């Protein structure tokens, strides 16, 4: 395919600037390093965080069954309509995810930061999940 760069650990399609490509590949390497140690089980599933420039996505995954048990993002209608900056909305995503996890019968999770630094929106999402009642 024209314009496709392929690496052994990441595939980035389209025209990507070299600096962006390097940082994206570095994040994937960090995520793989974290995933070696962090796995979800039925008793304590994994809370996965993904972040874009504009939105936050979080889901609770049982790795043994390969199923998503609960999910929330800033694209949900109630969070999208809310006021505040991206950090405040990330906290709301964590609280919403904690409510949905409680409805699914999940009390404790393992936090997978997805290769991102535990800072800013990632930390706000984790704090919101703790405030909502999830044990991280």
What does this structure look like?
Helix content is 39%, strand content 20%. A four-stranded mixed beta sheet has the order 5-4-3-6. It has a two-stranded antiparallel sheet with strand order 1-2. A hairpin with a 4-residue loop joins strand 1 and strand 2. The protein contains four helices and six strands, in the order ββαβββααβα. The protein is globular, with a radius of gyration of 16 Å. The protein is of the alpha+beta class. The longest helix has 20 residues. The model has no long low-confidence stretch (mean pLDDT 87).
Q: What is the distance, rounded to the nearest whole angstrom, between the alpha carbons of the first and last residues?
A: 42 Å
- The count of helical stretches stands at 4
Q: Secondary-structure element order, as H and E?
A: EEHEEEHHEH
Radius of gyration (Å): 16 Å
Structural category: alpha+beta
Low-confidence stretches: none
Number of strands: 6
How would you sum up the global shape?
globular
Q: Could you tell me the mean pLDDT? A: 87
Roughly what percent helix? 25-40%
Strand content: 15-25%
Main beta sheet strand tally, sense and closure? 4 strands, mixed
Strand order in the largest sheet? 5-4-3-6
């Amino acid at each position: 395919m024209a314009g496709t760069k392929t690496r052994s650990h990441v595939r980035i399609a389209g025209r990507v600037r070299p600096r962006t490509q390097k940082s994206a590949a570095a994040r994937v390497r960090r995520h793989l390093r974290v995933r070696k140690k962090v796995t979800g089980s039925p008793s304590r599933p994994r809370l996965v965080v993904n972040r874009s420039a504009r939105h936050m996505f979080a889901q609770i995954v049982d790795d043994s069954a390969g199923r998503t048990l609960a999910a929330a993002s800033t694209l949900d209608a109630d969070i999208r309509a809310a006021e505040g900056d991206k950090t405040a909305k990330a906290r709301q995503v964590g609280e919403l995810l904690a409510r949905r996890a409680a409805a699914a019968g999940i009390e404790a999770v393992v936090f997978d930061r997805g290769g991102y630094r535990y800072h800013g929106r990632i930390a706000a999402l984790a704090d919101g999940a703790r405030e909502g009642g999830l044990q991280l």
